[in-house]
Amino acid sequence: MAIVAVLAVLKFLFHLYFNNRYGDFRDEFDYIICGNHLAWGYVDQPPLIPFLTRICLAIFGDSLRSVRLIPAIAASMMLVQTAAITRQLGGKACALILSALAVIVAPQFLSNGSLLTTNCLEPLLWTGCAYYAILATKRDDPRYWVWFGVCAGLGLMEKYSIAVFGFGVVVGLLLTPQRKALASKWIWIGGVGAFLIFLPNLLWNIANHWPFAQLMHNIKMDGRDVVLSPWQYFAQQTLLTNPFAAWIWITGLVALLSAQRFRPYRFLGIAYLVSFTVFVALHGKNYYLSPIYPVLIAAGAVVVDDVISGKLSWLKPVITVVLIAGGAVLAPIVIPVFSPDKFIAYMSKLPIKAPRSEHAHERAIMPQHYADQFGWDEIVAKTAEVWNSIPESERSQCGIFAQDYGQAGAIDFLGRKYGLPPALSGHQSWWLWGPRGYTGSCLVVLDDDRDTLERKFSNVQYAGESRDNPYALERRIPFFIVRGPKFGSLQEVWPRLKKWR
């Protein structure tokens, strides 16, 4: 565990060093600005990440390293957590280190430590649930199920997908002798605890007519996401966990489902199969399942260590070298160790391509998690130029209308240095915050077309485009200044501007 702790510290320092190489990520604007509007929920997420982000930035400032401090800490803690599970499953020193290395080289977990997203805490909370489930089973002490419930409740306040894992665990318990846990009061107390932690967000969703459910329905109807077959979904799991290391978690899955030594924990293997099936059936994105892999890696590391001990001990350094080399090859895909141009050249030489989870991402020259770190400075600078071109007497009554949360969030966060007012948008949670007192008599409108605007306003003035950034997903967007709304006040038309997709 001491070696694992050292690896965790090194991983934290690694992320801290590289986490400011490019720019702010689109989703990071969303969490930061939602954190400035504290609530029990938001259209596209529960409240935990925005709340923690607000605290972190209040303490450490709003630099990129500050924004990404929580992911860096969480990714490093996950190494220790994975090794702790490995130890509980009977792993020795080599197994602990092997499990930590397998986590280190997984591209998805490297990405989790590099960007502020709702993915960054997921593995900690999923594996926290698994850890307490293992302790409850191993020590025959059902009181640990209470802590399972606490982790599950916090997980629901971070990202709803942990409910799929919880469902998988319940199915796994029902299908194995561990169903006796369901007869204990402690697992039900844990369930009540999870419900009470989640209750404020549940009430918020009810009061706001289930925004997240509406969002998911609209996304599905739009056909925005890339739909994967079961085989494609599985193949991408091996990419997310590193093809050089995927055999470890696959070994762990097989062992959890069939090995006698892991029979008490078979419900975790079943939970994986259930979760996999649910995400494929619901057309979930490829990374939705990734938080479960530390558990499978832990089990696999125990088996591998046992197999190669003795006469096959010479394989231990070989496996270590292969894992590190494989991790080094794939790390640039998710960690900005290269300049953009060098990265593009590097990607062109790799035999694999980064999978795209949405069709709109396919037009970018870089993977979406990189492309969405570019172009925001250009958009905000052009917004400031256009807004400042409006007569000062009119400027205080002139709102800035953006088409999506990326544009709106960039204006709200990066626009402060230009003195820009908060943006308006019908997209995601910005719609909940309303027109902010603007009447619509004068608006700076981003990324729309003249014909549409002329049907809504009597005066439409083209104000140019943002400067092009070749690496960005949003490039050269048009700007307009509009006056004289034909629809009455902005307050009246606001309900029709809702765009939850």
Uncertain segments are none
Amino- and carboxy-terminal Cα gap = 45 Å
How would you spell out the order of helices and strands?
HHHHHHHHHHHHHHHHHHHHHEHHEHEEH
Q: Beta fraction of the residues?
A: under 5%
**Main sheet strand line-up:** 1-2-4-3
Tell me the Rg in angstroms: 24 Å
- Helical fraction: 55-70%
Question: How many structural domains does the protein architecture include?
Answer: 2
> Any idea what the shape is?
globular
Q: Helical stretch count?
A: 25
| Counted beta strands | 4
Largest sheet: 4 strands, mixed
Structural class: mainly alpha
Mean pLDDT: 94
Quick overview of this protein structure:
The protein is mainly alpha-helical and 501 residues long. It has helices spanning 2-18, 26-35, 48-60, 64-67, 69-88, 93-104, 107-112, 122-138, 144-156, 162-174, 185-207, 211-222, 230-240, 246-258, 266-281, 293-308, 315-334, 340-349, 368-371, 376-389, 392-395, 405-414, 429-432, 450-454, 490-493; strands spanning 399-401, 442-446, 457-465, 478-485.
Description:
This protein has helices at 2-18, 26-35, 48-60, 64-67, 69-88, 93-104, 107-112, 122-138, 144-156, 162-174, 185-207, 211-222, 230-240, 246-258, 266-281, 293-308, 315-334, 340-349, 368-371, 376-389, 392-395, 405-414, 429-432, 450-454, 490-493, and strands spanning 399-401, 442-446, 457-465, 478-485. A four-stranded mixed beta sheet has the order 1-2-4-3. The mean pLDDT is 94. With 501 residues, the protein is mostly helical. It has 25 helices and four strands.
Topology:
Elements: H1 2-18, H2 26-35, H3 48-60, H4 64-67, H5 69-88, H6 93-104, H7 107-112, H8 122-138, H9 144-156, H10 162-174, H11 185-207, H12 211-222, H13 230-240, H14 246-258, H15 266-281, H16 293-308, H17 315-334, H18 340-349, H19 368-371, H20 376-389, H21 392-395, E1 399-401, H22 405-414, H23 429-432, E2 442-446, H24 450-454, E3 457-465, E4 478-485, H25 490-493
